[in-house]
TrEMBL record:
Cofactor: Zn(2+)
One example GO MF annotation: DNA binding
PROSITE patterns: ATP_CONE
Zn finger residue spans: unnamed: 3-34
Phylogenetic placement of the source organism: Bacteria, Candidatus Beckwithiibacteriota
Cofactor: binding comment: Binds 1 zinc ion.
Family: Belongs to the NrdR family.
Function summary: Negatively regulates transcription of bacterial ribonucleotide reductase nrd genes and operons by binding to NrdR-boxes.
Ranges for domain ATP-cone: 49-139
One Pfam family recorded for the sequence: ATP-cone
Transmembrane segments: none
Name of the protein this chain belongs to: Transcriptional repressor NrdR
Length: 148
């Protein structure tokens, strides 16, 4: 945490306190360089991510939907549940680190495909064929080419 006065990276926490409802942690800090004090607040970030579907309507990002899609593709395949979770974590982090809060469903599909290809070829092809139902053949071919 940078000091807001001198931008030093060396700060110490003097005191941490939960808010009454437990949703915010308040930390009193002191800069080790200029000795000024300041307060930071730590709270849970609500994931406000919108998915733009092919037909143009917009949905809230739903981690569970991605999980279900991957689990279905991995059925009877030697895909570890933890590996699936880490794929989803990875994709979610990527989406949250983007500047935009909107992403198209086909971009999400691409992210999943890229990772599934490394995990399991059969799961990859299954997911790709489900993906095909929602997108046209041309786009499907383009994606397969891109992923190589
Ligand atoms: Zn400072």
């Amino acid at each position: 945490m940078l000091c807001p006065y001198c931008s030093s990276q060396e700060t110490s926490v003097l005191e941490s306190r939960d808010s009454e409802d437990g949703t915010v942690v308040r930390r009193r800090r002191e800069c080790n360089k200029c000795r000024k004090r300041f307060t930071t607040y730590e709270r849970v970030e609500i994931i406000d991510l919108k998915v733009v579907k092919k037909e143009g309507h917009v949905e809230d990002f739903d981690r569970e939907k991605i999980r279900q899609g991957i689990i279905k593709a991995c059925e009877k395949r030697p895909c570890d549940e933890e590996e699936i979770e880490s794929i989803i974590d990875d994709i979610e982090m990527r989406l949250l680190n983007r500047k935009s809060t909107e992403i198209s469903s086909s971009d999400i599909g691409r992210l999943v495909l890229t990772r599934l290809k490394k995990l399991d070829q059969v799961a990859y092809l299954r997911f790709a064929s489900v993906f095909l139902e929602f997108d046209d053949v041309k786009e499907f071919k383009k994606i397969i080419r891109e992923i190589g």
